[in-house]
Design goal:
Strand content: 25-35%
Number of strands: 25
Shape: globular
Low-confidence stretches: 367-376, 391-396
Number of helices: 5
Distance between the termini: 31 Å
Radius of gyration: 21 Å
Helix content: under 10%
């Protein structure tokens, strides 16, 4: 039951903002400065600019259902979230106010109020580049030397540890008064996140409707898109529509990690999901990780370049190649079809691409004999990045690069067009 009679609009501008009125004429300077004033049903409009959180703490955590829309000009009349008016949520690795948590989170696990409104996150760019600690160089002005993330703090130079939380996280729990959660995350870019689990993490509950549409999730560790729930009853599971998203370069948590990382997309047990017209490419371990027995509908997706296996059903521990999933997958919806492994050209910066191709990871195919290897070897990877082919295998326990920083310009270039003219995200106004 939604009651938005007391809801209001808020406006935020990094360049013109001051104070906490949050009106169109007198906007706030940062979302973090007005979080304590937000009520259920409020709408927040954010102009283009770079935002660091309250006190540059690098985190925004909201405890009421709200709508957040970025990508506006200073008058809040024009909108280009991936173009002229990028709304960038960043941080400062040396801040005195460093906090652990998702860069943008809506946590309603304890929300029990009568007023229940739709949740929206639309047109926000989450870039943890300036929040991360990099070995040997912490300067935010020298991306070319930020090659290896450092997960520990460095007291000598006042550098905080690299955050291991989500870029965007929305969590809901039991619904009050038999209402239904309505959650949408769309038109967002999430990048340079060193997550231990879900980069874009949405946890629904019974009867929830979740739409994740037209997002670019690029150059992160953990799980690219994580469809999650704490509800494990049989009736009315949360329904997810995962559509027109591009997930690229999902690294393992570290060179040796084997769990909860290097996965392009994961659906937890109890999730009812339709997944279509997405690109899930270059996961260090797995393309699709399927938990539980609720059928997963996969239709018209590109699933390619994932190093261990295309599809993994955790119930029964079945690792299956893409070409075999319709025949061998036990918990795939019978309408699943037309999922392909296509060679795609990703227009990333050549220098970044060469460094990515030099990374060294453990060959889990040798350590886990029951995993079927895909045909996405080192040369296939180099071919998709537009690099010359070479001999040699990926092996070893150390790496000259690990989650080296990607620029927003390169990310936008990789996400503004659909691959093969059909799959993944595209620029939106």
């Amino acid at each position: 039951v939604a009651n938005d009679s007391f809801a209001r609009d808020w406006y935020v501008s990094s360049t013109k903002g001051k104070g906490k009125k949050g009106t169109k004429l007198k906007p706030a300077k940062d979302l973090g400065n007005i979080i304590s004033k937000l009520k259920s049903g409020d709408s927040i409009f954010i102009a283009g600019g770079v935002y660091f959180g309250k006190g540059k703490n690098g985190m925004n955590l909201i405890k009421v259902p709200v709508k957040i829309t970025g990508g506006y000009d200073e008058t809040f009349t024009k909108r280009e979230p991936w173009g002229a008016y990028k709304t960038i949520f960043s941080g400062d690795v040396k801040t005195m106010n460093w906090k652990i948590g998702p860069r943008l989170g809506i946590d309603l696990m304890k929300y029990r109020e009568k007023n229940v409104s739709p949740i929206l996150i639309d047109g926000i760019i989450i870039d943890n580049g300036n929040r991360n600690s990099y070995k040997g160089n912490t300067s935010s002005n020298d991306i070319g030397k930020q090659l290896v993330i450092n997960r520990r703090a460095n007291p000598k130079n006042g550098t905080n540890p690299t955050p291991d939380q989500s870029g965007i996280q929305v969590l809901v729990s039991k619904m009050p008064y038999n209402s239904k959660w309505d959650i949408t995350v769309k038109n967002c870019i999430i990048m340079n996140i060193a997550s231990s689990k879900g980069v874009l993490h949405v946890g629904g509950y019974k009867d929830s409707i979740v739409k994740i549409n037209n997002n670019l999730v690029i150059n992160n560790t953990g799980i690219g898109i994580y469809a999650d729930t704490k509800y494990h009853g049989k009736a009315n599971p949360p329904k997810f529509l995962i559509e027109n998203n591009t997930v690229l370069f999902t690294w393992k948590y570290d060179v040796l990690a084997s769990s909860f990382s290097g996965v392009s997309f994961s659906a937890n047990s109890g999730v009812d999901a339709i997944v279509k017209n997405n690109v899930f490419a270059f996961g260090d371990r797995i393309g699709i990780q399927k938990g539980g027995k609720t059928p997963l509908l996969l239709k018209d997706n590109i699933i390619t370049g994932n190093l261990n296996t295309d599809y993994w059903e955790t119930v029964g521990d079945a690792k299956i190649l893409l070409k075999d999933i319709e025949d061998e997958a036990e918990y795939l919806h019978e309408d699943s079809e037309n999922n392909i492994s296509s060679l795609i050209k990703i227009p990333v910066n050549k220098t970044w691409g060469k460094l990515y191709a030099k990374r060294v990871i453990i060959n889990r195919n040798k350590m886990e004999a029951n995993i079927k290897a895909t045909n996405s070897g080192a040369n296939a990877l180099r071919g998709m990045l537009g690099l010359p082919l070479q001999a040699g295998n990926v092996k070893g326990v150390s790496s000259p690069v690990w989650l080296h920083r990607l620029s927003i310009k390169d990310a936008v270039t990789a996400g503004t067009h659909k691959y093969n003219e059909k799959y993944g995200c595209g620029i939106k106004k």
